[in-house]
From TrEMBL, chains A, B:
PROSITE patterns per record: HTH_ASNC_1, HTH_ASNC_2
Keywords for this protein: DNA-binding, Transcription, Transcription regulation
Coiled-coil ranges (or none): none
Domain of life: Bacteria
Lineage of the species this protein comes from: Bacteria, Pseudomonadati, Bacteroidota, Flavobacteriia, Flavobacteriales
Matches recorded under Pfam families: AsnC_trans_reg, HTH_AsnC-type
Protein name per UniProt: Lrp/AsnC ligand binding domain-containing protein
Keyword GTP-binding: no
Boundaries of every HTH asnC-type domain copy: 10-71
Amino acid sequence: MKSSNSLVKIDGIDKKILRYLMEDARRPILEIARNIGISGAAIHQRLRKLEASGLLSGSKFVINPKALGYTTMAYIGIFLDKAMSNPRAVAALEKIPEVLECHYTTGNWSILIKVLCQDNEHLMQVLNKKIQQIEGVSRTETFISLDQQIDRQIRI
Amino acid sequence: MKSSNSLVKIDGIDKKILRYLMEDARRPILEIARNIGISGAAIHQRLRKLEASGLLSGSKFVINPKALGYTTMAYIGIFLDKAMSNPRAVAALEKIPEVLECHYTTGNWSILIKVLCQDNEHLMQVLNKKIQQIEGVSRTETFISLDQQIDRQIRI
DNA sequence: CCTGAAACTAGACAGAT
DNA sequence: ATCTGTCTAGTTTCAGG
């Protein structure tokens, strides 16, 4: 994988291929090939090149957590004691499966995390029995997402 | 698609299949089939069932935005005037490609969004010339993510 | 809920432009 | 450097247990 601070150049064909596959990673390559007007093999070669360049970092099946009863999403801003290092806090947060994202942020907090819980009671337990129990966490601020209204990737 | 408030039941085989494909949506089904010990056709039938149940909401190619020069990620809390309705604000935000997520939140702000920009100057322009220009946006608070240290889906 | 067969597609290679 | 044709292995559907 190429160093990711060298910018990758992509042409119109690459963009078309990526737009198809960003929507549906299992879309048949030959179907894309027919739409674009090149052979399937050419698409495979371009995809290999894009992967080698570091632009393509993989593919994922997307799960709908609501179908499993996970309906409460929240952002939590975390204040850390001066003595607590960020890497140690992240290591502790990684062990909590409800934590889906963790950002090292400027501004009010040391850390901003996104958590996904079954309901408010579950969220309360994650806060009180998991997050607040981490050594060095002094205070938290919670923002419940009543509805996620936009969720997308960068536009190509 | 089934109503998503009825909980989906999945067994151990479904979980194994999902864990493989959540990591890599293009992983060969037959490879998974051999690892689990059932036929490829059986996996396809299970996947169709999971999709019909609403648990599987699709698959995506994942792009590394840094390779395209997008290195500045930030969360922005937005205060809306009483007169501004949430849906109209979301409609305006949808037109801004740098906005990747939008959450209707409890707490301080009316809306919390995630934006991805090339650099700090680009972020400043998005803030001043796009977000703040939206009618009904009274004030914003910006938190730059210096580093996203965790990024994952729900654990199955 | 599973398997096996049939038709189609993915992914890799050699070779042409 | 990027394309095409071809070949093996994988995907996906369907009839049937």
